[in-house]
Amino acid sequence: MTEQGVAATDNSGAGNSAASRDKAYFLHPYTNLHAHETQGPLIIERGEGVRVFDDSGKEYIEGLASLWCVSLGWGEERLVEAATRQMRKLPTYHVFGHKSHEPGIDLAERLIKLAPVPMSKVFFANSGSEANDTAVKLVWYYNNALGRPEKKKILSRVKAYHGVTVATASLTGLVNNHRDFDLPIARIQHTDCPHHYRFAEPGESEEDFATRLAESLEALILAEGPDTIAAMFAEPVMGAGGVIVPPATYFAKIQPILKKYDILLVADEVICGFGRTGNFWGSKTMGMEPDILTCAKQLSSGYLPISAVMVSDAVYRACVEESKKIGTFGHGYTYSAHPVAAAVAIETLKIYEERDLVGHVRAVAPLFQRRLKALADHPLVGEARGVGLIGALELVADKETKTPFDPVGRAGAVVNGLSQENGLIIRAMGDSVAVCPPLVIGEEDINLMFDRLTTALDAAIPVLR
Ligand code: PLP
After folding, report:
1. ipTM score
2. NCBIfam families attached here (predicted)?
3. Rounded to the nearest whole angstrom, what is the distance from the C-alpha of residue 185 to the centroid of ligand 1?
């Protein structure tokens, strides 16, 4: 259609500005679609270090690293060059049917060598959701290979976030990802959320709370039938559910139960992987020994979409046996191990090593956590929680009774909006607001980030009270 034709038939209300064209044409993910029709977008034009700038030139500290992923910040020329070099050499090629290429091979080798526990092989996908969806299918395939067609149920946790495909949104334990999407699908069970502040009994220690959750998990497994449960998915630190750090001894108590009933552990390292919690893997920080590990986001510093699924030798061997029996392993994406994304991921991993990014996180995390936890004294904050360079504040109407604001979500939205006005991008998840800046952030910007957050919290008091 000609441009004239569009104009003649267009009744969308589109004007010439980017904001009005956005409202006219763009269906946004994770956005209140009704509010967007009046409110419109915040248009981000460019980035530099830990900062982004909108189309009016206003500067923001990106306190969530653009959805928990831009570890190296904006403007990392080495990633641009790695992508450009690969674009010129082999801009795209698939890896189906025995085809391969050097960037895919190199990245797989690097990941296996970096794995927190011995792993055998890497499968590549394009997003965290696809990686976890692949893990679900591998778990089912594995149990069919072992002749256990009944062992297929998958456990996840209330407030978990594992993605938005049909299967992974079902694993996600958040109401908004199920409601009106006709989810969850069958064979998914949610067990307790390991949030001590919200769900511990009065006076219950972290250790006792962890024991109770482990007992509750075992009771669920026994009620469902251990022979029907195939795997449990868990983020080392729950991210989008509100940055929930599990209580002390949690995984130490959960894992023997999974082992006892031959249930695989899938570690979802989509946020925690690559240094976020102060170790290269969140699994190390939390003492997890997964059979399958998924990662994405910081794998490429978010510069290009790529994700990975690492599997243990036992899982891999069973899949090989099944393939021997039935032929081709019938799973893969056109862009699995996309060579340009893989080249950028390889360069990202090289930079992590050369610049000792984990060492940097360990050096600045104490200041980050000190500033975060000092906000527990703020009149609106019920709990300040976090580890490494990730944290959240839970906003409450009454600190003594932990009573949430009514309606839930308004306080989070208010603090989110005021932070943005004050030059800080964070993320509200209900009434918890998360901070998760680029891993390269320095002490000066950590202080500035928390100064801006404090200003926003102070400004929220008269609005919310
Ligand atoms: N798993 C975790 C822990 C995540 O935080 C996310 C996204 O935030 C996902 C999976 C899904 O990743 P994606 O949005 O790339 O599909």
Report:
1. 0.99
2. PRK06105.1, PRK07480.1
3. 19
